[in-house]
Specification:
Blueprint (H helix, E strand, L loop, with lengths): L4 E4 L2 E5 L7 E5 L2 H10 L4 E3 L2 H5 L2 E5 L5 H22 L22
Antiparallel strand pairs: 1-2, 2-3, 3-5, 4-5
Length: 109
């Protein structure tokens, strides 16, 4: 807990949760992860378990150039924005209704 994370509208796209191990973490799609890992296996490693199967990817910071890291961060950031757009709930527009004022029911005695 307490690791640095990077967010868009409160949603994480990158963390430094494993910085002590020399990793940054990116939240990618499984397809994006596969491309990064294939192209640069010494820089990108799938996170173990379910998180990794869903696209969470370690970035070996010591092996990543500034350009590679910036490009990967941009991909994760863009994905987060796209996901946020898909899950954003439409704002419920308030409709104004006329109030009848102080209407009281009349009791029959």
């Amino acid at each position: 807990m307490g690791a640095a994370d990077f967010r868009v509208d409160g949603r994480i796209f990158c963390t430094l949760a494993h910085a002590k191990k020399g990793y940054g973490n990116l939240m990618l799609t499984p397809e994006q992860q596969q491309m990064f890992v294939q192209d640069l296996p010494d820089v990108f490693i799938p996170v173990a378990g379910g998180w990794g199967r869903n696209g969470a990817t370690h970035c070996v910071l010591a092996n990543a150039s500034e350009d590679i890291l910036e490009g990967a961060l941009r991909v994760a950031y863009k994905l987060r924005i796209e996901k946020n757009e898909k899950t954003r709930k439409p704002k419920a527009g308030r409709t104004k209704t006329k109030r009848a004022g102080n209407v009281r029911s009349k009791k029959k005695h």
